[in-house]
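FORM 7B: Structural annotation worksheet

SECTION A. Query
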Amino acid sequence: MILQKLLEKSNYTIIQGNLNVDINGISYDSRRIKSGDIFFCIRGLKNEGHKYANEAVKKGAKVIVCEEDIQLENKEITIVKVEETRKALAIVSATFYNNPHKKMKMIGVTGTNGKTTTTFMIKSILEKEGHKVGLVGTISNHIGNIIVPSERTTPESLELYKLFHEMVEKKCEYCVMEVSSHSLALDRVYGINFDVGIFTNLTRDHLDFHKTFENYYEAKLKLFKESGISIVNVDDNYGKRIIDEISGESLSYSVKSESDYKAFNEKCESEFSTYDINLKGKKETIKVGLPGEFNIYNSLGAIGASLALNVSIESIKKGIKDVVVTGRCEKVGKEYKLPYTIIIDYAHTPDGLDNILTTVNGFKKNRLISVFGCGGDRDKVKRPQMGKIGTELSEISIITSDNPRTEEPIRIIDDIIKGINKNNYEVIENRKEAIKRAIDLAQAGDVIVIAGKGHETYQELKSGKIHFDEREIVDKILKEKEKEY
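SECTION B. Predicted structure
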């Protein structure tokens, strides 16, 4: 594609060279440059893209897009200057892939917790209605039935538009996606007008990046300024604030407050939840294929979005009942017919841990044994909060390591312990040993919750990522225990 065509929707200045350049591809990583590419100098959290402009040229880049003055050794290369390279990257990527986001109905879900489950619920509902759906999220990306690995909750704009393009090529009519606060703050979704935006909740997380809670909220708010209809949880005070601060159409959902879609007569069982709701003037009973009140909230957001898209109530009910989400309140080891229950869950925030442990306390027959830690290189304030929650809501807690990254695991554990006021916990730094200890302690009627990693199949250490799948670990431990009997 000719450079002039790619830049037609951007504000730019030509520093050197000309616009009559044929572009083969786009990159913001100098290591991935191929001959004939355009290179965007992006300011990252760790790297400064402007430093790699000459390296990109040596690899074959024909055009450099920057937001500050740069000097190139090759004077024949075209240099384009823009105000913000991240926004320019999003605009150019959309044009390069022929604006695929405009060829699908776009549904965005944001919030601290519940994004993944809500997106899977909506995907399930739309598929029951007979539609082909793309999904972008934490666990994986989906192009209809094709599963594509996911490296982050919301990809960089270049990868995002490539994914949209592949969805359109495969005839997807809808794209439902998790929209992280990072992606909103870093303009990864810049230029996307969502048909529906959903707000789940806002609790403490990512303050290592956003610095203040107000910044965190303002990042989330961006989604609803770019949404045709906003579906908002008004049991959350920040949800009420969103409705007050946006000018577009909004619909509310709740369990406690008055709202457009309010759940009542809730019943939470160990395998599922049910509730009643008034839809189109008629009382409907909804069965959620996942336990816990927090999944009732997730289903309400999915219902609001689906009704805004004119989906039938029949498909809504079927989709919510049949939804399956890896690593979200996922029972493992069922084939061993254990006298106790083992659950793996992604809960890695204070609110998330509170939700899963409160849910389990609602159906346990004996004790709750929790295994959890906190991630390294992240907000340290939540560590003692999670320590307090874990030990207050469990009969036994085992504090362990969880993606320590560049930090020493025991230092993270020390921070967690600072919030604990009880003596019902053990410290076992090795996560495999912590899981084994929980299983060794389990008695009939107990529930073990292994929290923090959920769908993840790795552990992030100082030396890098290693394979670590808790399903495999539990299976191996249970097989070894079988041999003992």
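SECTION C. Observations
The mean pLDDT is 95. The chain has three domains: 3-83, 100-322, 330-484.

SECTION D. Sign-off
Analyst initials: ____
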